[in-house]
Write a structure and sequence with these properties.
Distance between the termini: 96 Å
Structural class: mainly beta
Number of strands: 34
Strand order of the largest sheet: 22-23-24-25-26
Largest sheet: 5 strands, antiparallel
Length: about 550
């Protein structure tokens, strides 16, 4: 091959801009050529000299364009590419977007990057996607405020060397707070003051285990208020009502089984019910144990399952009818509705329902439209008398699309056939369409005959009836005609050529003179042969008599020895 592929093409990085431009240009150049096939032996195909030239040309363009965009191979990427940022750096004159990922750093060290991470539930199903920014270096803010969620959460006053946190609630979760300084809640004299050596409320020290009574001393009092923790190592007996409105933790053997916090009651163990007992709300049982069964109900309203935070409800057991005889919905989606079935969409009218008159008359009712493929696909609809099929015919011309809708109906009606039975009612399966024609891509066959409605014309096995007396009938060696035959054009054999050395036969009308000419190999007249003008090209007799006369006739000719 005299044409060689440019050696730099094989070394291109497939993720580079140059390769992307080269690949697009080559495919555009290649697809613009005539492809090589049986009718175009000089067309182009992948791997020939023409395709190699196209690759080299595409690489030349791509290299120049990519070099101008990235700043490679020249000192300036001016002209139409002046707004592009060079690979070697430069100043931007417009907005910078990186909606599909971004990394930044210095000295070949990544300091800042964007990320996305799938959040999965316990079953490994992706329920959300977390988007954010990771900073692996120090973050220095030149301003004096920090906004989170649109709120000025942190402010710093450099003149007072004071940082202010502004939030309705600060939740440190399970973290620890350590300070070697002092804490003040309110004024020191009237509020709470905490230091590494003392705790004061309203300017007075708070007593604790270090300065209160000892563990060997009993303490009896009428009323008592504990401002901190209250720990009992022995048994506690209460002879009155226990009021704990600010949280409770109950358990056994050092483990918390029941806790109260805010509006939540947390159960860390099993809640067991004896037979006939369960949970009541407003004096009504909503969860009751009935032997080995559990009854779940409401207090007069609906029983609601799921919430806005519930992605889906999963069935581990089937849902049955009240008698337990019919499994209405299995855990794997098998459904059976033994009563009836009604389908609606977005609270609209009934679209589908089931019905039953008796065991011989039961089924499904389509109340509106039945479409296929998409919501604008082929439409089937019907009523008590007919069913119709609607679809669109699409025309495309000069880039403009024209849609023509058509409708075809099917129904049964009173027959109008000329061959309808006269001793009973007769009906016809009727097809009506607003299209121009009806076509089939396979042969159409019928038992009996194919005819024209309201006409005697029909086609049966071997016979074409035009009327009851005029017909064409197949016989063993041809077609038999009933009635007169009228031909508007030429009548001839399958192959015909005129003249003495010709073949075949024909009866032809001359369009110029209007004369009709008949050409046969032989003509036999059993009785008289009449001609107003008789022209003979050749007259000969072999082993017979030759009789030429100006004007005479004879009844017989005898040979005289």
């Amino acid at each position: 091959m005299s044409v060689q592929l440019h050696p730099d093409i094989e070394q291109l990085d497939r993720s580079s801009l140059c390769y992307s431009i080269y690949s697009q240009l080559y495919h555009n150049f290649f697809n613009a050529q005539q492809k090589k096939d049986a009718e175009h032996p000089y067309g182009v195909e992948e791997g020939d000299e023409t395709s190699v030239r196209l690759k080299n040309t595409a690489y030349g363009f791509a290299s120049a364009i990519a070099g101008a965009v990235t700043g490679e191979g020249g000192e300036s990427g001016g002209g139409l590419l002046i707004d592009y940022l060079k690979k070697t750096g430069g100043d931007m004159t417009g907005i910078f977007r990186a909606n599909y990922g971004f990394e930044a750093g210095v000295a070949n060290t990544r300091i800042l990057e964007t990320y996305s991470e799938d959040i999965t539930d316990a079953d490994g199903v992706v329920s959300a996607i977390e988007y954010g920014i990771k900073i692996t270096g120090n973050l220095k803010l030149g301003g004096d405020t920090l906004y989170l969620g649109g709120r000025n959460v942190l402010r710093y006053d450099p003149y007072k060397a004071t940082a202010t946190i502004d939030a309705s609630n600060i939740d440190l979760l399970s973290g620890s707070v350590h300070s070697t300084g002092e804490w003040s809640i309110g004024d020191k004299d009237s509020g709470i003051f905490i230091s590494p050596t003392s705790l004061q409320v309203g300017g007075k020290d708070v007593y604790h285990k270090g300065n209160a009574n000892l563990a060997t001393v009993d303490w009896t009092m009428q009323n008592g208020t504990v401002h901190k923790d209250f720990t009992v190592h022995g048994t506690t007996s209460l002879n009155g009502t226990l009021s704990a409105k600010y949280g409770v933790q109950l358990g056994d053997k050092g483990n918390t089984l029941l806790s109260f916090s805010g509006e939540d009651v947390a159960l860390s163990g099993y809640l067991s019910f004896l037979d006939g007992f369960g949970v009541r709300i407003a004096g009504k049982s909503v969860l009751t144990r009935e032997g080995e069964s559990i009854r779940l109900g409401s207090i007069g309203g609906d029983l609601l399952l799921g919430s806005d935070d519930t992605p889906k409800i999963r069935l581990f057991s089937g849902i049955s009818d009240i008698d337990g005889d019919c499994l209405m919905l299995s855990p794997y989606g098998k459904a059976c509705f033994s009563g009836s079935l009604t389908v609606r969409h977005n609270y609209g009218a009934d679209l589908l329902s089931s019905y039953r008159v008796d065991s011989n008359d039961e089924g499904i009712i389509i109340h509106k439209n039945l479409r296929f493929g998409t919501a604008d696909g082929i439409l089937i609809k019907g009523d008590k008398e007919h069913i119709s099929l609607s679809s669109d015919v699409v025309y495309e011309k000069d880039g403009v699309q024209t849609i023509v809708p058509h409708k075809t109906s099917f129904k049964h009606r009173i027959s109008t056939s000329k061959y309808a039975p006269q001793n009973r009612y007769s009906e016809t399966f009727f097809v009506s369409t607003d299209a121009d024609f009806v076509a089939a891509n396979v042969p159409i066959e019928a038992v009996g005959h194919i005819g024209i409605d309201g006409s005697f014309t029909r086609l049966t096995d071997g016979v074409l009836y035009l009327t009851e007396t005029l017909r064409l009938q197949a016989v063993s060696d041809g077609i038999k005609h009933y009635g007169n035959s009228y031909f508007g054009g030429t009548l001839s054999s399958e192959f015909f050529s005129a003249g003495f050395a010709g073949s075949g036969w024909a009866i032809q009308a001359n369009r110029t003179t209007g004369n009709v000419t008949a050409t046969f190999d032989e003509v036999v007249a059993r009785k008289k042969f009449r001609a107003y003008e008789f022209e003979v090209k050749k007259l000969s007799a072999t082993n017979g008599s030759l009789w030429i006369s100006d004007s005479c006739s004879g009844d017989s000719v005898e040979r005289i020895a």
